Amino acid sequence: MVSRSPLLLWLLLLVTHLLYLLFGAFVFCSLEQPQEQLLREETEELWAEFLGSHPCLSEEPLDDFLRRALLIRSFGVSVLRNTSDLQLKWDFVSALFFSGTTLTTIGYGHPFPISMSGKLFCLLYSIIGIPFTLSLLSIAAQNLLVLLRDKPVRFLNLQCNISRNKLEWIHAAFLIALLALLFFFIPAFAFNAIEENWSYVDSLYFCFISLSTIGLGDYIPGERSGQQMPALYKILVIGYLLIGLTAVFLMIEILKSCLKCNQFFNLFLLEREDNRRSEEMERVPPCDSEVPFVPKYEETTRRRVPHSVSPTEKSYGAINTSFS
Q1: For residue range 47-92, what is the model confidence (pLDDT) as tens digits?
Q2: Residue 158 backbone dihedrals phi, psi, to 5 degrees
């Protein structure tokens, strides 16, 4: 029988998540809608000013041209006429960057496959590659957890007169702060220096959006016109993303261990397999019991055996052969 308490707790968790979604939608709508309306007004003014300056142009052909140009731009192909932006978007390094961001589930969405064969290959490639990549990063994080958390905590526990729980929290706070500094705040300075139109906040935002595998695609490294050594830059970014994701996995494992997340999530499970097995084991008597376990069918069979076969038992139904 399913216990009601875990089911009620799970429903409460679901309602909490839905409320969190609604809260996020309300805040984003309140913050971004005024900016969207402002951009729409500026676009209308720019459109009217351009048509007023060029009376020979009609609105419909210009509108059709812009629609086609924006569609081509959405495929990752630049529509600008300068030579620096006419480079191929699907050269080997760009394809390597796309493969790395796809297998890590970051998925900036720029560029993306255009051909039908490319889309089909992307499906097959991702089905195999995404579990393989995430498993590889998870195994690396587990090994780093032993080297950077378990062994130092065990050593410090023997050297210091501090409880293990308190020591784990101190070590976790130090290690998470160090990893955040190495993979968020310091790389943000590098991106701020390389990308001319990125502020430090934009760079920090890019690092978090990328390493959390959200990958909105509003900031993409190496796409600026006149980028110095874009191939080497993208290869370094791929290495940063792979190592950074391993660090994020490590931070998550450290937090889960400190917060005892497994015990918390067990409250929401309806029935665990180990509990079911333990209940089945409790029903079976131990092997060294003083009273042997005899199935019913064996007990009935034993009772039907003639008493003459068992000389130790007293016979009540044996035939007296002295009258024969």
Answers
A1: 888 878 878 877 788 788 888 877 777 666 666 665 455 566 788 8
A2: -80, -30
State residue 315's pLDDT score.
Answer: 45
| Model confidence band, residue 182 (pLDDT cutoffs 50, 70, 90) | very high
CB-based contacts of 179, cutoff 8 Å, min separation 6 = 247, 250, 251
Residue type (1 letter), 87: Q
Whether the per-residue pLDDT at 25 is higher than 60: the answer is yes
Which DSSP string do the residues of 129-172 spell out, in sequence order? HHHHHHHHHHHHHHHHHIIIIIHHHHHHHHHSSS-HHHHHHHHH
DSSP H/E element including 203: helix 200-211
Q: What is the DSSP string of 76-127?
A: T-----SGGGGS-SSSHHHHHHHHHHHHTT----SS---SHHHHHHHHHHHH
| 8 Å CB contact between 156 and 132 | no
- Per DSSP, the residues of 135-147 read HHHHHHHHHHHII
pLDDT tens, position by position, 259-302 = 777 677 777 776 655 555 665 666 655 555 444 554 544 444 44
119 or 6, which is more confident: 119
- In the chain, pLDDT over 70 holds for what percent of residues? 77
Report, in this order, helix, strand and coil percent for the chain, each rounded to 5.
70, 0, 30
Place of tokens 């560029």: 111
**Backbone φ/ψ region at 7: left (φ over 0), alpha (ψ -120 to 50), beta:** alpha
The total number of residues shown for the chain amounts to 324
- The closest alpha carbon to 245, from 219, 209, 216, 218, belongs to 209
Residue for token pair 């665990």: 272
What are the b/e assignments for 239-258, b being 16+ CB within 10 Å?
A: ebbbebbbbbbbbebbeeeb
